[in-house]
Amino acid sequence: MSTTLRINGKSHQVDLPEDVPLLWVLRDEIGLTGTKFGCGVAACGACTVHIDGAAARSCQVALSDVWGEVTTIEGLGTPDAMAAIQQAWVEHQVAQCGYCQSGQIMQAASLLAENPAPSDAEIDEAMQGNLCRCGTYPRIRAAIHAAAQKMQEA
Amino acid sequence: MASFKKIARRSFLIGSAAIVGGVAFGAYYVSRPAPNPLKPGDGEVAFNPFVMISDRKITLIAPRAEMGQGVHTTWAALIAEELDVTLEQVEVLHGPAAKAYYNSALMSEALPSTGYDKSRFMHSLGELLGQAGKLLDLQVTGGSTSMKDGFERMRLAGASARETLKEAAAQRLGVSRGQLSTKDGTVVAPDGAEIAYTELAADAARLEPVDAPLRPRSEWRLLGKSQPRVDMADKATGTAQFGIDVRLPGMKFAALKANPHLGGAMKGFDAAAALQMPGIERVADLGDAVAAVGRNTWLAIQALEAIEFDWGAAPIPASQEDISAAIRAAFEAKPNSTLRDDGDAETLPDGAQEVTADYEVPYLAHATMEPLNATALFDGSRLQIWCGSQGPMLVRDHCAKALGIAPEQVEVNTTLMGGGFGRRGETDFAVYAARLAGQMPGTPVQLTWSREEDMTHDFYRPASVARFRGAVKDGKALLLDGQIAGQSPTAQAMKRWIGLPPSGPDAALTDGAFNQPYAIPNYRIRGYAADLQIPVGFWRSVGASINGFFMECFVDELAHAAGADPLAFRLELARQEWAPAAKVLEAVREMSGWTGTTPEGVGRGVAMTYSFGTPVAQVIEVAEEDGLIRLRKAWIAADLGVGLDPRNLEAQMFGGMAYGLSAAMFGEITFADGAAEQVNFPDYDAIRMHTMPQVEVRILEEQPHIGGAGEPGTPPAAPALANALFDLTGKRARRLPLARDFDLLA
């Protein structure tokens, strides 16, 4: 079945069974590998993307159910033109293995879009679905606060 | 000061002599150092296996697995420090699998010495030296050894390349080398003119390498200071390429299913239905597993679900109770090791109060964030493989064997790793990919394990049980006698890695207990190897994660029985034995404002474990909030000897603690009919944003040796938390995971 997706501002036509999750369409069909596979059951958040600006677990969204424009980590910013949240990640040297960080950043970006100055409790609430086996949480928290401040000053 | 050449010779002598048991061959071998594996292209010069300069760029080789610990950055900084380049102007690559990239520090890790006092416990030296000798030939990232290994060798490699470049400039300018200096990738002439290294590379290639002494610490520009990680921007933008992100033209995607009853045979399977599924092109028999191949990974995973398998039974006791009984049965046989036996541990000292306690910890999965995977392309005679690996030479050899080709016919491309923790020191995931590629010559294929496949086919951190007996008198510890039983991870791993039959004592069985820097006059630790076929292996800090829990919980119980403050009690034992261990305890005492008392509803615990050359103390504070127990705050002090990159070391310390806390709070793998009962994160959770404590880290530099960083943060986490829970509730935590017995916030 042919489906058209809007991803990072571009249209992509894919011919696939409609139950294939968005995660695998992004990674294996379109080649956007920044979005990661971690668990396949929405328990780790590594596959987090934005659909119409809100965080969604792409491993749980069937191709036929994609309800809006998709933004992946590649669409958020690039090494040469990073989004403020990505810059904060670099400034705070957040990543260790880095595998979960695309999902962490997409989740954090979604939080900041809704709540420009989140409290620690609000960060806990928004980020607890995103697992990091390296334990980078203290720096994720610091980077979110820093990005919030920077975005408010901007 | 040893020279770069001498160090290489010395290491090869020990390694090769140990392998063949004779110095003669060693001496012969010495004259032929391992060939430089770098194959410079046109206009490129490889000064040594670690520095390559072309007319355009400078490349540093960091041949250690980057699995999050920051090794590429600090390894490159070691070379850059002496080479006089900035990290911004170089490219850092992992490089090929090669003998030249052997790990020279693994040997001392394999010795059954306490580490802080290297003269002790050398009685099994000969036997272990043989094993270490074989390991020495291997390019392995593990045992928290990278900085111990590279600290001197990499600076010498950088210094030698720098002086050789200066010599080339000296000859060009007609001045002496001593009149020249170097700065940011250039040689500076007496008149201030600068010649870029890239311009001198071709001339320098024609010269004999020049040795140079190392600069004193006071002249360091990069080391000892926090460096921005070379992989950070890529990891913040989704452009870092992990194994699972490898994409080759025409590549197919595959998924794997092996017998969940571990060690059982695959007796047969019916793939008829799977082959009818959309996007599925092939179902391959890999001997003891099956791979489905198709146009994307998810379709392949679905196809595996449609296959009917006839699985053989596992050679493992059917229930968890039977497994525990088999571990306990090891106590009936003679010990595998008695690596510490100070004083008289048999006799209860006069007038002393006896304390006993039994402890138990479960099997654990590694659960790296990136599920296991490898990508392979076989052209009919040569295999190319891409994967994250802590042992690329093992990947090369094992894949070659699987396809019946020579190791030289295998090219290993080591990618970034979404976590390793010891799991990526194994090769099973690469060998399966090689076997699959062998069945489809000319077509590249990526073989990915589902999370369920990954969690149920691990080489688990062994479960273990302990029986501790001790005695206190007048507020002091007089006796500590520990017996620890579990499967030997080293015996299994050595068999898998290099075919060594299991033999001799396994220091990993009691690491974290026998080698603790405590002056207890009667101190004995015995290890017992359990005879079980459950696949086990190395897991971030291995034995120290098990025995650190046993030991530091029991020391806490001794302190309590002695009526002493648990931190002061440890301090007194450590001060008499090894000052750096006392210093880390003093540091967390000061950082946490430890008073020995806590308000109602708050508990604090302390633990200190010496592992991988580094003493680490942690204080953890818990509080009761709305009927649940939350980890509020943690303080960590670690003595690295030389703190090469403070900000990265801080990350390793709180990250190591988080890994230990995840296991302590939630981690448990149990088996039914030989199959793991926990299959994905909902059954095997980890610490998360809302359950992670605030944390403060201090890096000390008191000890004379450089310590490991990747693992030592893990062992004290579980006992510090268990002791805090006792302080809060009055109930001793003697088994893990703690969520079974305490109402922890989850």
UniProtKB/TrEMBL annotation, chain A:
EC number: 1.3.99.16
UniProtKB keywords: 2Fe-2S, Iron, Iron-sulfur, Metal-binding, Oxidoreductase
Species of origin: Leisingera aquaemixtae
Broad enzyme group: oxidoreductase
Protein name (Swiss-Prot/TrEMBL): Isoquinoline 1-oxidoreductase subunit alpha
Domain 2Fe-2S ferredoxin-type: 1-76
MF annotations from Gene Ontology: 2 iron, 2 sulfur cluster binding; isoquinoline 1-oxidoreductase activity; metal ion binding
Top-level taxonomic group: Bacteria
InterPro entries: 2Fe-2S-bd, 2Fe-2S-bd_dom_sf, 2Fe-2S_ferredoxin-like_sf, 2Fe-2S_ferredoxin-type, 2Fe2S_fd_BS, Beta-grasp_dom_sf, Diverse_Oxidoreductases
Presence of keyword Iron-sulfur: yes
One Pfam family it belongs to: Fer2
TrEMBL record, chain B:
Superkingdom classification of source: Bacteria
UniProt-listed Pfam families: MoCoBD_1, MoCoBD_2
Every Aldehyde oxidase/xanthine dehydrogenase a/b hammerhead domain range: 237-315
Family matches, as SMART domains: Ald_Xan_dh_C
Residues that span the membrane, as ranges: 12-30
GO molecular function terms listed in the Swiss-Prot or TrEMBL record: isoquinoline 1-oxidoreductase activity
Keyword list, A-Z: Membrane, Oxidoreductase, Transmembrane, Transmembrane helix
Organism: Leisingera aquaemixtae
EC number(s) recorded for this UniProt protein: 1.3.99.16
Protein name according to UniProt: Isoquinoline 1-oxidoreductase subunit beta
